[in-house]
Amino acid sequence: MAAPESGDGNNGAARMVTLISSDNTRFEVEAAAASLSQTLQLTILDGGGGGGDGIPLPNVDSATLSKVLEYCIKHAPAAANGGAPNATAVDRAELERFDNEFVNIDQSVLYSLIMAAHNLEIEGLQSLVAKKVADMIKGKSPMEIRRTLGFPDPTPEEQAEMNAHMLEYGWAYE
Amino acid sequence: MPPEIISSILHRLHHVEVMLCADKVCRSWRRATRHEPELWHRIHMHDHADLRGRGLVDLHKMAADAVLRSEGQCEEFRGEGSCVHDNVLHFISDQAPLLKRLILNSCREISHEGFVEAIKRFPLLEELELTACLMVCSNEALETVAVACRRLKHLRLGHLSSSCLYYEGEPDDRDATAIATLHGLRSLQLVHNELSNHGLEAILDSCPRLESLEICRCRNIFMNNALQAKCARISMLRLVRSSLSPRFRLNLAAPPPSTRHRCTLSNGWLI
């Protein structure tokens, strides 16, 4: 296994890794925070991402990556404690407050975040955005859901297909 | 949107909402609602009165469709109000052989015969709640449950309070006698039941594994030393007094102090 080049645990300094977004912006972040991503974890364990190398992330742009890393940095200490069994109620409340504010974002940003959380396999973030989307579409009609999520309006063919399926179910009279 | 994400979102919505709305969002969402049995392992259908009022939805067929989507894997069905009737229950008994939890609340369209026929086909049932299902004769139904559902561990039986308001007859231990045949019970909750101390003692004698007992507003239960002694082994004991029972009120004056530490304070009355 290659030895990480920059600041390893021996002297207590946190090891750093570099991530490179699709638009070539470099982000230096603690390995512990980046390791919240299952996708990155193995590479980092193998010593990747250190020094001048950096890990390229061709599917994530810089705006999204910076948002993702904001989440990872905030959640890394709790994750390091194995889900923080000894976290205080104050810590948990603080994380919850952070999460609520974190997803209070524009729909287009949320969509990029969904895709990034999925591609990078960050479990907590995946749940957080899924919950946010679910909350956003609760009580809305199918058409409103489409608009909320930024889907284009259905073509007449698509609409006819949906209506046919609903009738097929037998419980919708519409 | 990747299917895993769609699925993760759908898991956070109510079943009725998934069927009514998510189903119609687009092709990939429809695929996710129809072809993911996991989404339907635990089904909770309640009456969406506003929808029915608009005449858009047949809740009975909808409940049946939800069960069908589970592809035989449904483990919990919770039905409230008029979304379940005999045919739906029959359909569930046909399509959900693995059912472990059945919760029926205010399902007034379920007949006694319909319930008894269906319950015979849930051999794996571990939890049953029957609340305010007026057409089901509880004591006879429980006799069938005792034979058919050998794994039953949790029972909640709730009657409407109106019978207590207008009925001034003797205690009725027929439910208790039937419950006493459910030897594997771990928890029992009775609401507005007419059972007497004698009936409750029979249950305590016959259900050695009972560890949680909740008696809510059962006006013929009178906590005396004998009953107290029998309840000593119950780790979670909760009694909510009936406001209609004069005997409870009398008993309020002298709550036995020795058992205080085990009991939950409810409505100001501590046993």
Automatic annotation (TrEMBL), chain A:
Pfam family, any one: Skp1
Lineage: Eukaryota, Viridiplantae, Streptophyta, Embryophyta, Tracheophyta
Functional note: Involved in ubiquitination and subsequent proteasomal degradation of target proteins. Together with CUL1, RBX1 and a F-box protein, it forms a SCF E3 ubiquitin ligase complex. The functional specificity of this complex depends on the type of F-box protein. In the SCF complex, it serves as an adapter that links the F-box protein to CUL1.
Entry superkingdom: Eukaryota
Name of the gene encoding the protein in the UniProt record: ga14711
Gene3D superfamilies, sorted: Potassium Channel Kv1.1, Chain A
Ranges where the SKP1 component dimerisation domain occurs: 124-163
Organism of derivation: Eleusine coracana subsp. coracana
GO biological process: jasmonic acid mediated signaling pathway; protein ubiquitination; ubiquitin-dependent protein catabolic process
Entry similarity comment: Belongs to the SKP1 family.
Official protein name in the record: SKP1-like protein
Pathway the protein takes part in: Protein modification; protein ubiquitination
The protein's assembly and partners: Part of a SCF (SKP1-cullin-F-box) protein ligase complex.
Location of the SKP1 component POZ domain: 16-75
Record keywords, A-Z: Ubl conjugation pathway
SUPFAM superfamilies, alphabetized: POZ domain, Skp1 dimerisation domain-like
From TrEMBL, chain B:
Gene3D superfamilies (UniProt xref): 1.20.1280.50, Ribonuclease Inhibitor
Coiled-coil ranges (or none): none
Residue ranges of domain F-box in the record: 1-43
Alphabetical list of InterPro entries matching this protein: F-box-like_dom_sf, F-box_dom, LRR_dom_sf
Protein name according to UniProt: F-box domain-containing protein
Lineage: Eukaryota, Viridiplantae, Streptophyta, Embryophyta, Tracheophyta
Gene: gb29280
